[in-house]
Amino acid sequence: MSQFTIMIDTGNDLPPQYIEKHNLAVTPIPFQLDENWHYKGRWQDISSSEFYTKLRAGSKAGTTLINPETFAEVFTEYAKRNEPLLHISLSSGLSGTYQNSVIALGEVKEAYPDCQIFTFDSLNAAPGIGLLTALAIKKRAEGLSLPDTVKFLEDNRDKCFSLFTVDDLHFLHRGGRVSKLQAVAGSIIGIKPLLNVAPDGTLKLKDKARGRKAALETLVSQMQRSLNPDTKKLDTVLIGHGDCIDDANTLAELIKAAVDVNEFIIVEIGPVIGAHSGPGTVALFFEADMTRQEYEAKFYPGK
Question: pTM of this prediction?
């Protein structure tokens, strides 16, 4: 097996037991809830239920970047030990964290020019990054080298889809992820907005459905149209939820009725993404047969 460490940030939302099983390193993205900043740990001293309960009660949440100094400190430790490292980052279309990792790596390479450290822009969010991480873990286990694993991720990144529905677009608007017009358009009573992570790693409002069940069914139909007609089985499907496990389980059952899945991973969407998507978010992540560019051109030309 190839030997290199895979590092993620807390925009990833893989479950702790999965992180431990695959010996992943984690760099936390700081987040704020009301006046309190949280800097360490996956849930950073607050449970998912408490976090979303506070949001529903009117608490305000936000995030900040991992600064270059933090990345430089971490990267330097690996460089000093001559240990290969792959950092998989939250999308540059959603956060400046990736750019800060690039800045830090440039500084570290000046001091340690032979270090084997790569930072990779997922152009994705939440469990979508987890899907890319799972691919990296698989390739590492197969013995692929670190540079070849990075090349594999680059070649397959655009087939990793992120589709989701939210209860309230105003959370995304407040964080600057969608426009005021989109937020108002998605807030009509009974209408549930459906979004995806576009090829450039930003969020795009694509469809609307009337009611929660219709929104979940639309997620499945969107998934199906990204697959070849003869595709009978998917390897790994990730479902993320913002304190709405019943809806996540319903989505899993709908998917099972449409296509065979080798492995489901259902995860809680953590505070880093949840601060912007809000409670009631349900997200679907999978590897499609077409690229996100092909999907946009075919189903949403000009949108």
Answer: 0.90
